[in-house]
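Q: What residues go here?
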């Protein structure tokens, strides 16, 4: 079993018992907050890296930047097709 399956199993077992008290949900909200904070920190660092990459002449000529952006969008869109349609 990989880590995603283990976490899913833990959450399913956690929710299998009836939620009689809102305090039982508190650890899940804390976990959600920690995961959201880590995703926000990763997003900020990726934004800084991309700004540094595109602000300098590291990419090359000006026509390469849109080509690189559309290529990355196509690559991500092949795995997550929902990003290619209306938001």
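A:
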């Amino acid at each position: 079993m990989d880590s995603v399956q283990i976490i899913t199993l833990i959450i399913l077992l956690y929710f299998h018992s009836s939620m009689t008290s809102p305090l039982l949900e508190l650890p899940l909200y804390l976990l959600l907050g920690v995961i959201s904070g880590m995703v926000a920190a990763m997003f900020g660092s990726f934004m800084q890296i991309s700004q540094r990459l595109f602000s300098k002449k590291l990419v090359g000529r000006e026509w390469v930047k849109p080509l690189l952006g559309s290529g990355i969008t196509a690559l991500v869109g092949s795995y997550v097709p929902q990003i290619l349609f209306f938001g």
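A: Context that may help when evaluating the design: Residues 24-56 form one domain. The two ends are 34 Å apart (CA to CA).
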